[in-house]
Structure prediction request, 254 residues.
Amino acid sequence: MELFDTHCHIDVAAFDPDRAQVLERARARGVRHMLVPAIDAAHWDRLLGLCERLPGLYPALGMHPVFLASHREGHIARLEALVAERRPVAIGEIGLDHFVRGLDRDAQRKLFEAQLAVARDAQLPVVLHVRKAHDDVLSCLRRIPVPGGTVHAFSGSEQQAGKYLDMGFKLGFGGTLTWERSRKVRHMARITPADAIVLETDAPDMAVSQHAGERNSPEYLVYCLNALAEVRDEPPETVAAYTTANARAVFRLS
Prediction:
């Protein structure tokens, strides 16, 4: 089986001691492709270099809403320049987070909309981070339309899911599926159309139940695959085929 991890922070320091070994184990399990989303501008060059050196890694450039303190006004201009020069496959990880206390919502929205404008102008998909803010994110997307993308770790309602799908987005499902108590997410994974689902790990975060309390890893995408196959009552090979095809389609990879 060929698998695509559509959200893997393989570039972060948590993988510095053994990144090559992690990637080798992941590929041995069929995880041949990974979308690597950025968190802040300070690490864009490192992320791009890593994706250029290692096969099967695809870069997304953006500024994560939780790390507002790291972002500066001039970073948008730098993002525009890098998009023109290096052409990442997506803009991300971007969005709104109304779960973390103390984050300036106006500042988040301004940053998010500025990055949406970069994606719109470059005609690139986006990788969305959304917590307790789906309606606000959808409102921004209506004002600044982009060519689809992925909704990372989707946890919204059926109605919100439908609106994202109407805008050309795929919904990301990962480690949460492996926890039986995650009834809402497992229900959404069951009812979402097959052509709108992608798999992800969010490694090194969002551990699967089989490795609770440990560093998450792209090699564990197989647990997410098996959980998705279980809730949908489909063969893992079938799920692997369509989720990989969906990832290639949304990021426009041949």
User: Anything to note?
Assistant: The beta strands are 3-5, 31-37, 57-61, 90-97, 126-131, 149-151, 169-173, 197-199. The chain is about 40% helix and 15% strand.
